[in-house]
Amino acid sequence: MSAPSILQKIFESKRLSVERTKSTIPTEDLMIQLNLVKLREAGVVRAKLSEAVSRMDRVNIIAEFKRASPSKGVINDSVSPVERAKEYERAGAAAVSVLTEEEHFDGCSEDLASVRNNVSIPILRKDFIFDPYQIYESKVLGASALLLIAAMLEDDKIAELLDLSRSFDLEVLIEVHNEKELERAISLGADLIGVNNRDLNTFEVSLDHSRRLIRHKPEGVLMISESGLSTPEQIVELRELGFDGFLIGEALMIGGENRIGRMIRMFSNYIDQ
After folding, report:
1. Residue 44 within any structural domain of the chain
2. Residue 2: band (very low, low, confident or very high) from pLDDT cuts 50, 70, 90
3. Quick check: is 197 catalytic?
4. What predicted TM-score, i.e. pTM, was given to this entire model?
5. Is 227 known to be catalytic?
6. Could you tell me if residue 98 is inside a domain?
7. Which of 195, 215, 228, 272 is deepest in the core (most CB within 10 A)?
8. Is 138 exposed, middle or buried (0-12, 13-18, 19+ CB in 10 A)?
């Protein structure tokens, strides 16, 4: 029997984490919170991730808050999610992504909740989502959109979670890594697709995944390139190939506000040249 992949290990730990959370906050209690959120937000128009990454007058960066990762270990555990998200917004990011997975990325749901009250740009919840409970939780926390990983979910589960998310006005970014997963996402009606340049089974990174999959971009679908992006040249190339947005985490997490501002402006200025 082969050893479990990194993705399988993360999924199993997340499954246990969700069960622990359910024992602390039962679904019935979470639904009460959800109904209060729906009442509070009735008539409120929030920024949408799809609109943020479809603008043609800028480079659409989804800037990620990520303290650690299985491949890099600790990236930056000294900066607060609120301050970093504010820095991202001031620097011109189109949206912010918040990793809420605990064991392998050192995130937590409170990170997203705190960010929600301090920025006006859309917020993507990055996590390993497989249970309707996590959809309810995402809405309560204040996410604008959430991630579903095709490599981790069967088609019927993706369809279920996609429909449920949309019923709560949550957009869904379906993450793919190869042609088969892209075909599945398209057939399920995805309108936001992320191409992860990192193989979640090995955590090896190659931009060739983005270069290859963008050839199959359907009309009316927005595509985001994720992971391994750090230079303007990479952004220029992938933008010219047809990508609408770019999710960048580690390269933005390792510096202070001045560096973040310089990097995001550098991407934009390079495009304008």
Report:
1. no
2. low
3. no
4. 0.93
5. yes
6. yes
7. 195
8. buried
